[in-house]
Amino acid sequence: MTTSTVLLLLLSVLIASAVSFYHYLYKADKQLKINWILALLRFTSIFLLLLLLINPVISSKSTEINKIPLAIVTDNSSSIKELKADQKALELTQILKNNAELKNKFDIQHYSFDADFNSNTNLDFKGKQSNIDLAAQNLKQLNKNIFYPVILLSDGNQTVGNDYVYSFQESATVYPVVLGDTTTNFDIKINQLNANKYAFLKNKFPVEVFVQYNGTKNVSANFMIEKGNTKVHSQTISFTNASKVQSFQVLLEADKVGIQKYKASIRSSNQEQNLYNNVKNFAVEVIDQRKEIAIISDITHPDLSALKRAIESNEQRKVTFIKPNEVNDLQKYNLLILYQPTSLFKSIIDKNKNLKINTFIISGLSTDFNFLNQIQSDLDFKMSQQKEDFSATFESNFNLFAQKDIQFSSLPPLQNKFGKIIEKSSVATLLKAQVNGVSFENPILTFSEKGANRTAYLLGENIWKWRLESHLNNQSFEDFDQFIDKIIQYLATNSSKKSLIVEHESFYNSGETIGIFAQYFNKNYELDETANLSIQLINNRTKKVKNYSFSKANQGFEVNFDGLEHGNYSFKVKENNSNASYSGSFEVLDFDVEKQFVNPDKERLEQLALQNKGQLFFPNQIDQLIQKLTEKGTYLPIEKSVVKTTPLIEWLTLLILLIASLASEWFVRKYNGLL
């Protein structure tokens, strides 16, 4: 209790004494015994009231000794079992947890990890992934700003996450204990295989392969890729003691639409301990994206050549030039580009009424705008014979497809007849017009969508100058060509907007989390975040059906599946309020990344120990590890001074006493006729 508090208490006694004396003794006509009782009660009431206001506290100082935490982190992935080190891992964990010297010196914390980080000690070595980096990040959160040791019982083979060598905090000293036999076993494996998930029909697609050899002799192995029972590639790979890792690329033919499954394998004449890592299954979805595009024009213009080059920069596009009076059959075309249409295009418009092929209309100085008003109902052209240069401004809220601003405002202006263009129906404008830096309400590039039919309008000629200027600015035609390609991609597809959009892969590897993302849009094509989505998942082999609900996610909904066995699955997503649905399928490939290892990664664990000022140990050196941790002068406990403050009297007790004192005074005065 401080000096000032003591002075306040003394002052409270004086005030209470003075007031009670003045009221019941000094002013009293008669010195009755009852006056002394009332004075005592008044003194008590006033003193308790002042005591309640002062609220005096008593401080006490004590010392706490906190042990340094010792984190024992055990690898619970299935690779430990594959390396026949699971029993040793259990044995070492128990030795470290139960060691009396360690328990006396440290606050022992035991964790395990696989794909997740766990604070329990239930080790079953069934984890499908190893994420040492995640364990390091969690330890950072649990032991902030503390100098402490970490014992990592692991084979060092990480299958997911960032490089764990640099993941642990600087204040953690890491002591890795290597699990598994470090004796080099003869092994050839496919270390990694990279292939695009999609390929285009009749194209060749690359497959990048990394193979690795463990051994000391010079050996040769045969690498091959099979599609079903057909061998599609074969080659011989040579390894030496100095060249144990080989990488190469294989080109395969995409000759059939759909998901094509392949098996890559490598074999040698030597006997291997682990044959599982000699095989990798992969799949590629082949898409037929070839589009036939007709550019129909009655005039010659540099725009035509620029459009053809930009469109055919995508190998899946083919452009054909046609005169309006030479058109016989339009059915083979996916898109019609009508360049500066006039009345000569009437026969084409008539033929397309039944075919309903999407169109891209480009206007200019040679366009017949009266005819253009007759053949479409999206825009009303009120044009004069005067020509004008129109610059383009980018509309950032355009959302029909993703398009960045390629500095449209700095590109040369397009020429068109001067006049007013009125929107008659709902259109989406990507580029608007400017004249001499002043905004003009006319569109330059706009899109219309009616049911399954799509139309685009480019209102101005000399787009060839855009392509040339883009090349001058970027030393490449890529920006302009991609801009045109996105327009063509949008127009060459007849699909209208769907209320239920589902995103998923065609195949997944077993052991990884399988995620499906969905969005539901209302009748105004606005994202509905209150939708009720469910999914029915069917195993095509066992015919087993399971139902799941989607969870809310950023800009949509998602559902995740863990632990699905390899095989083919079909599914149906349904919005339960509107009955909108989507059906799809995927395949889980037979691939267990935890079975790829034949030895622990001793080198990485050594780097980890060096990076974090620790030391690498082997299972037979566990006593040396314990001795190092229990050495005198290391990892000393933390001593803390703790000051505790407690009130002299609890406020509730004071309040009760105050009420009792006031009540007693009132009753005494009442009983003696003083009220």
TrEMBL record:
Keywords assigned: Coiled coil, Membrane, Transmembrane, Transmembrane helix
Keyword Transmembrane helix on entry: yes
Superkingdom of the organism of origin: Bacteria
Transmembrane annotation, as ranges: 6-25, 37-58
Residue ranges that the Swiss-Prot or TrEMBL entry lists as coiled coil: 85-145
Alphabetized PANTHER family for the sequence: BLL2462 PROTEIN (PTHR37947)
Record-given protein name: VWA domain-containing protein
